[in-house]
Structures are given as C-alpha cells and as structure tokens.
Amino acid sequence: MKKLVLFTSVLAVSLWSCGGSDEKEEVEEPKNAMEAIQQMADKAKEMQENGPVDPVDFRELKAMLPETTGGMERTEATGEKNGAMGFSLSQAEAKYEEGDSRLEINIVDTGGVGGMAMMGMAAWAMAEVDKETTTGYEKTTRIDGNKAYEKYDNERQNGELNVLVGDRFIVSVKGRKVSMDQMKDALDEINLGKLAKME
Fold first, then answer.
1. Residues in Cβ contact with 144 at an 8 Å cutoff, skipping those fewer than 6 apart
2. Which is more confidently placed, 9 or 128?
C-alpha cells in the first residue's frame, strides 16, 4: 500500500508532462540548481514529445536479485506493477537476513512516469550533496557512470545506497547493522549495464 501511495504522489507531479523516453542520452552534470531545473524541464518536454514507455516486466527485475549477498540468505523476494491513468511503475524487492543484520534491495522501473519520477523518488539525482556529522555522512557520487547517493550512520550501522540508471531505473540498497562496504557489495550483485539496456 505504501508503495502505491508513493507511486500516486509521483504520478501527481508527473501528470503535466504525460510521457517518457526510451532514448539513453549522455547528459552533462548540472553545475547549479538553475541548470538542474532546466534539465528537468528539457526532460519533461522530451517525454511529452515521445509518449509513454511501458515498464519492464517485474519478473525480469526480480530475476536480477541475488539469492545471497554479503553473507546473508535471501528471505523474501517480491515483484509488482502499479498503474493509474496511463502511467505505470514496475518493481522488484528482496530482503536478506543474518542474525541482527538486514539488507533490502529494490529495483524500480519508472517506465511510463519517466524522468519526472526523479522529483518524487530520486530528488538527489538533480542535486549535489556532501555532508558529514559526528556519527556519519551523506553524499552524492557516481557509480559506473551513474548518479548515486549514499548515506550512513556509523553508530547505528544503518545506511542506504541509491543509483539512478539510464534516467529510468532506480536501484536502492538499504541496510541495518551492516557496513557500507556490505551495501556496496550487494549493489555489485546487480548488473547495472544489463539493466540500462532493458526496454
């Protein structure tokens, strides 16, 4: 239910653009907030011109989730497709456990919502973040050429790692009682190159 609510929120932001693009273009990193806003506007125009894109079957996404990762066994694997008013998302999720440690990997194809989904699901993709606290940090970075965001609390050993692939797929790894290295190892289990080529 919470995923459907999130989808509905993203959909509300996206309705005015009405579309998506299946073209993978190399976009220069925005130098400031104004450039980021302009890129979003350009993306919305492109989406409107090219029409909606059907998301990948969630079963294909589910097949990309590893059975084990970071020394943990997969305890659950689910997939679903949500849609409303001509827009749709597909996603697959897996959970892993070992003692007190937990990992969760989620792959979302924004499909018909396209680039505008970033405003509701991956706002970090259009920002630059570099922050440190007494207990941890958060920052935007790049992984295999893709915009990424990581956040970690050293005291609680909790964190998250997110990657935007091809302006369409969002891969998220969340962990509790694990290291950031374990989360990065879990992300390495996902073939981002293959994901980027899915249609």
1. 163, 192, 193
2. 128
